[in-house]
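Z., the sequence and structure:
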Amino acid sequence: MARQANRTNAEFAKMIYYLRDSMLGFSSSEITTVPLPARTKASDPFEGFDLYAQPNWDGFDALPVLPETVATAKDLYRFIEPELRDLKRPNIAPGSDGTIGFEWHYRGAEIKKLFIEVQPGRQVRAYWVRSNGVIERLPRGDLANALPGLQRILSILAHGA
């Protein structure tokens, strides 16, 4: 079992392809692996978001993520970037409703979940779940007006209550 835990992703992928292809009649010698480009912490977290600008980008009738929404998300990211030295980086993902979500999860912290949603029209909203289960919200509003509230919650997340 320990040997399996030490396998590289390429070895694991090759093993999966071998199992699949042996069932389909292919030879494992025909399998090649292609390394995927590694994303570094310094890379642009919005790289590739232009692919979501088309309707139905997910195959399930997703609304397009407009360039304006991406620009607002980038503005938000630039605002929170100084706090990220004390926080883990958020998961950032497009939503099928044309939004972009930023999400953090923590164990044993005062705030165990923070979710910020960037919406079309430079609108944002946020909610967070405290360790006692209480859910709090930042009402939907313009990014500029929401920044003080977001700064407060990010500070709690980074430094405690």
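The CA atoms of residues 108 and 131 lie 7 Å apart. Strands lie at 91-94, 100-105, 111-119, 123-130, 135-142.

Let me know what you think.
H.
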